[in-house]
Design a protein that fits this description.
alpha/beta; binds adenosine-5'-diphosphate; amino-acid transport; ATP hydrolysis activity; membrane; transport; Methionine ABC transporter ATP-binding protein; 6-stranded mixed β-sheet
Length: about 230
């Protein structure tokens, strides 16, 4: 589903080069809930930005659904992006728009008609348990509710991959638990492959089946959560 082959990514700033990724090999299979764990600065965000086509590798291949993203033209890239949903630590909702309109953003971009949008948005809000908040503004919601809106928006275009960038790091433990259970349900019911980056071991242990441990731009261990961290 997602495969990185010997991927390097360097950033050059003011004459200094930072090697953010140094030879990453990684394989996420369809149906996985794949966790990437590491300390701040390990290269996790860079890795997920490569998978979401927001960055290009300096060297190596990033394959999604069997194809190297380097071979896409701009039009193909836009189509491929619809296949990937993403949620964020700080939710990235538009504060000036109501919940309904936030969730509708991807559908508006896809030029769906009004009825279709209305039906799909209400279906998504029901799925995440926020049917009664369609007319609210993000500022009226709790953190957990905001992330549910983020999840609904990420699912709007029917992606087969959901990328989660520290999606529970701003939430308390109880809310984290309910969001992780929702991600598990999305994985199981919609057969969506989930990739999570986090610095929290508890997130990996609660829902991931596979894990990669990152340190200074490299993966130092990768495998099933049981193999990598052992049984309790
Ligand atoms: P993590 O998500 O694990 O905290 P990052 O991928 O954000 O790690 O960062 C890895 C390294 O790459 C860090 O040293 C960071 O400063 C650097 N880096 C990330 N993005 C950029 C960028 N756009 N320009 C320069 N350096 C960057
Ligand atoms: P940009 O990528 O330039 O920020 P877009 O038009 O792609 O703008 O995104 C519109 C809105 O959707 C923004 O609020 C952004 O935070 C959010 N967004 C961008 N990419 C994704 C994604 N893959 N999944 C969910 N929301 C996204």
């Amino acid at each position: 589903m997602i495969e990185l082959k010997n991927v390097y990514k360097s950033f050059t700033r003011k004459g200094t080069t930072i090697d953010a990724l140094k030879g990453i090999d990684l394989k996420v299979e369809k149906g996985d809930i794949f966790g990437v764990i590491g300390y701040s600065g390990a290269g996790k965000s860079t890795l997920i930005r490569l998978v979401n086509y927001l960055e290009r590798p300096t060297k190596g291949q990033v394959m999604v659904a069997g194809r190297d993203l380097g071979t896409y033209n701009d039009k193909e890239l836009r189509t491929a992006k619809k296949n990937i949903g993403m949620i964020f630590q700080h939710f990235n909702l538009l504060e000036s728009k109501k919940v309904f309109d936030n969730v509708a953003i991807p559908l508006v971009l896809l030029k769906k008609n009004k009825n279709e949008i209305r039906q799909r948005v209400m279906e998504l809000l029901e799925f995440v348990g926020l049917s009664d908040k369609a007319g609210s503004y993000p500022s009226e919601l709790s953190g957990g509710q905001k992330q549910r809106v983020g999840i609904a928006r990420a699912l709007a275009s029917n992606p087969s991959i959901l990328l989660c960038d520290e999606a529970t790091s701003a939430l308390d433990p109880q809310t984290t638990h309910s969001i992780l259970q929702l991600l598990k349900k999305i994985n199981a019911e919609y057969n969506i492959t989930v990739m999570i980056i986090t610095h929290e071991m508890s997130v990996i242990q609660e829902i991931c089946n596979k894990v990669a441990v990152m340190e200074e731009g490299r993966i130092i261990e990768q495998g099933s959560v049981l193999d990598v961290f052992g049984s309790p």
